[in-house]
């Protein structure tokens, strides 16, 4: 089961696969996972130095802070090697962050987290999910475009506010940023009752 943090709502998700994929199965974050998330995000952010040089971004958000926000916080692995954080704000689902520790990259964990986040948002009743990302960084916009996301030209007030916040943080000095979204195919059908 997935736990929609901040609301306590449970959202079901199918899991399974081969033993190798089960080692990094996506699941809801648990309290013991939360202290690990900032280090994972910080390690993943270091990859940007190969593109931008030194970066002076704000420190990563604390896992407990993320868990307190309305949305879904998913992790992969035990111990955790990656996470996805989807915010539910102003009636929109927004993928705030996906981070995978560099030592675990290249194993499909980022894609598994992305697909689980999209499924969870759909199960929560959203028909679309958005994100903001760098347009020209290979593991950013091109990664998401290959997985069904498209650049949004007509920004909602929420997206305008997100972009203004990113500009104030100075992210745009590293390269163009875009808002992208993906259709989730309409609301999920009601779940069958189980006994």
From TrEMBL:
It comes from Nocardioides bigeumensis. Residues 1-26 are annotated as: Disordered. It comes from the Bacteria. This is GNAT family N-acetyltransferase. Pfam families: Acetyltransf_1. Keywords: Acyltransferase, Transferase. Residues 24-185 form the N-acetyltransferase domain.
